[in-house]
Amino acid sequence: MKRKLIILLMIFAFQFGTAQETNCADKESKLAKYLSENDYIKAKEVWNDIKMTCLTSSEKSFQLGLQLQQYNIEIASREDKEKEVREILGLFKLYDKTFPNNSNGNFEKSAMALYLNKVGTNNEIYSLLDQAFELQKKTFQDPEAIFVYLQLYVEKYKAEKSTITSDKLLSKYTDVISLIEMNKETVPANQEIYDRVLVSMKSLMKDFLVCENIVTHAKNNFQNKTNDVYWLQSLAKMLSVSCKNAPIFESIATELHTRKPSAKSAYYLATYNLNTAKQDKAIEFFSESVKLESDKMTKATTAYTIASILSTTDKEKSKEMVLTAIENNPTNGRYFIFLGNLYANAISECGTNDIEKNAIYKLASDTVLKAILVEPRLKGTSEELSKSYLQKIITTKANTKSVKIGCWINQTVIL
């Protein structure tokens, strides 16, 4: 008899639990429906019921409640604004307590609820953003929130120089940059926004981003950060701007290129070698950067850099690189002007007689005029150069219509 009673109680409990779950799901569906229809009066009635009986049943309950509370904040009077914001902060806190493994980013959202509605203190906002950074980094993705986080830390540094050193400030800056670089990979749709934030943060930090500070910070932290690819990327980028010939720049760029070889890491090594008078190694790494680069515009720019460096010492390689630049960015007229000049400067090495020299000047003229087709604003420059080349053509008795130019130019020119 006792055993039957226990079984009946278990069946009753199961049926009650199932009914409760079904009832909560129905309420969630109603709330979602009313919110989609902007019927906030009925939505509030259902939400009050959910708070009493179903709030812990699923994350969806919290998410719908947060949506309703955000509406309450938007319509609140100035006098009631803080009350409604505090209400949503309490909901964020309960959300994390009830579902500690959620991915809603509630610290970040709490901070921005305060910041955007001008509620609370800077210390309170910073504290929430710092918790987002330390405890919910994977969901700390709002570009504006990340910028505010750094901005508030800079303000703390200015107010508390006795407790926050310049090295700590740079540590925070590099940590935040590392977060953005990570987010650019996980949220590629926001890449342009993140890039704009990086520019704004650099402007915010301009007084601190001097070579001496960056080098000191890099040396102090390098050994402990060799496994942190994002830190290496951040420091390499800063050093490439301010400290191009610092030995620590080479160390960091080499470590980065070893752990995560990319067009950028190769470019950093090329930059260091170029600025320490190691041109051959610089060209080697610039060439590797071109091969690894997937963005056509960047590939063209790097190829043009190589062409410019080699324009007097290795014209054949220079021509190859400027043609690569044209292939990847055919709308840049200056590439054609560069190539035309390259041909014109080859007279002494590729023109063995007057006919070949005439052909080279004609080729140079034709090439610079191509710039006008892709960039009409270069018309004046192109036509002036073309005229100067054509004026150098020598009249000969030979009645030659086409000339084959060998050397590294290797083209046939119609005269």
UniProtKB/TrEMBL annotation:
Keywords: Signal, TPR repeat. It comes from the Bacteria. InterPro entries: TPR-like_helical_dom_sf (IPR011990), TPR_rpt (IPR019734). TPR repeats lie at residues 263-296. Residues 1-19 form the signal peptide. This is Tetratricopeptide repeat protein. It comes from Flavobacterium cheonanense.
